[in-house]
């Protein structure tokens, strides 16, 4: 029979307790994880002497352990008010403020702590953590470095420093810091899987996979390591294996919607996946939401000017999505439209600042909950809310599922349906999604922009074109994950038809000798000598990446998942692109782009036609200068025209809704 615990006061009346007794008893209870008893004891201690700052600070620590950070912050604040010269109180206040959602206040409190105890490595490390959360990565590097100066064997700080270097794109420094962290803390699965991420970013996928698996040997239920392993497998083209890992992850964390989104994204890479399977899987995502969505349709029956448009994206930085968003933000009519960007960008950069300047309003939502983001959007009275992410990383589809705007649209960043019943429209075009062909695979109504759903913004500095005298060279700079065995077989056939030709494949994964050998062997098994195939990993900069197009003469698009940015980059660099059109959007983007260029004759409907087009371009193709000029003068780079068409589409949708609700 279970015994009921005696009341605390009944126990304590047996002996006259001093405040020190209460405090020591609270500490003992806390060490034994008896948090409720610890709270009662510390409250008794404060009641005995409310002027003791140590008691208030210890109450703050107990409240943090109880998951009540706001109250913890109040207790630590009282401690700092009583004794402002004690750095540990400010340190606790900083952690409490951060956990309560007040990131700025947390940074300020930890900064005060460091002024009072500048030689405390834990304080510098924790300040770095908060600076990282705030996106102040350079400041975080300084804080972690200072922590390591004070404590050279501080494995946690090395691990945190490595993660920040990853965010900054300083990959060798990231690998070095995380390798050191793993040596110091070889049993820490978080550090091991983060080291795997560093190797993956460097393109060393085999090592990445090994480190993720080592992390899982230590903790088979570590969801971060499972997700990282699945991403690594997907990036190696092992799609089915990646999907199995996602199944395990979702089994462990059924309410992790980001894991389900990652699994859906992975489906698009499957060579044999059909529209029905993709559609059903996306619809299942909505069914698996934790609770029925409370749909809130804002009341907005008046036709207002300007129309308030919101754009939600984690990719408002130097990212492929930004290349196609810039023309709209640069050229929209500010008298007719008011655009607010809701940025989930993890590492803002100069492109972020440019997009800020182009927008009417800017909201940072990186550290906000879905509930807070939803309230923010509703308070902004947005008429039309546009998602740019779909099921790509760090999306906010769970916000769209709550119907936070009268009209909700998905566009640009994802090649298929979101599966959300609350997503009204998906913007595409008649080539990417021919009418009466793919509508049945969408929960949204398809809206066809003219002539293309994309408009490309070239970089400000474009490399010079170079004509090199060499055997004709084919190339593909698409992500290796899009490269299927069928593509290898087709391209090998092409090279056998053009015996002196060469092939350049460029993707970060080719830095991995295992992957490089596998691809070389595949081509050699189809009659193409390894000396004719050049495999290139990551290059130092975007400019160097673009310059590498001077090494090829004809670009080959991947199938069934076409390239997008790479196709535009090839055309910008005067390189014609041969694309094969499929049945779904992901396999028709190449056709969409080339159609808008007036180059539909470079689009094949089957393998033999692909070969014929590529062979014909060997001896008859436009000059690089002419093709670049055609591209820059085409609809694909007409930002003003695209913005006008885009605006007209939004105004039509808003007008139709206004009429239907009148």
Describe this structure in words.
Helix 6 (87-99) packs antiparallel against helix 7, helix 11 packs antiparallel against helix 12 and helix 16 runs antiparallel to helix 17. The longest helix is centred in the last third of the chain and has 23 residues, at 639-661. The protein has 29 helices and 13 strands. The protein is globular and about 95 Å long. Among the domains are: 1-118, Serine Threonine Protein Phosphatase 5, Tetratricopeptide repeat, CATH 1.25.40; 307-449, 3-Layer(aba) Sandwich (Rossmann fold); 473-637, Rossmann fold, CATH 3.40.50.2000. Strand 12, helix 26 (589-596) and strand 13 (603-604) form a beta-alpha-beta unit. Strands 3-2-1-4-5-6-7 form a seven-stranded parallel sheet, with helices on one face. Strands 10-9-8-11-12-13 form a six-stranded parallel sheet, sandwiched between helices. It is 52% helix and 9% strand.
Quick recap of the structure?
The protein is of the alpha/beta class and 662 residues long.
Radius of gyration: 29 Å
What is the helix tally?
29
Q: How confident overall, as mean pLDDT? A: 94
Low-confidence stretches: 1-14
End-to-end span in angstroms? 67 Å
Strand content: 5-15%
